[in-house]
Amino acid sequence: MMQSLGRRYVQYFNFTYGRTGTLWEGRYKSTLVDSERYVLTVYQYIELNPVRAGMVQHAAEYTWSSYRHNGVGKRIGLVVPHEEYLRLGKTDGERQQHYRLLIQGKMEDRDIIAVRQATNKAWVLGSDHFKAQIEEKTGRPAEPASRGGDRRSAQFLVNRVDQ
User: Fold this and answer.
1) What's the pTM value of the predicted model, to 2 decimals?
2) Long-range Cβ contact pairs of 46-49 (< 8 A, separation 24 or more)
């Protein structure tokens, strides 16, 4: 009975929301992030998601956000500060002030696109040097290969002859 009920609910849910597959299919996404510059970019992306979605006017208003811990100083036991966050200042107050400025600023469209593409396609988010290190260690590409190109260019012809 429970199995039948579950199957019917999934069919109803998928029909209602225009989805396919299981309820949890494709829900988990992750990507490897270069800490130095990109971790704060990811923080900014995550904190501003509810704002971009029109759910709240400011990141501090979203209940499930770490902004209240990182930007306001409300202690949340589940939040463990990243070393890059700790580098924002020498005191809690300094870090919170810098974090508020980071989240207050408008996020660059190119950064939003980079985070989304890296996450959705499981590419590495980081500097070219970091990506090269990851490619060397894992033996897999850290970003998509370029497509197409000018087939009449000298570089294309040299590469084609080498293969």
Assistant:
1) 0.71
2) 47/71, 47/103, 48/103, 48/107
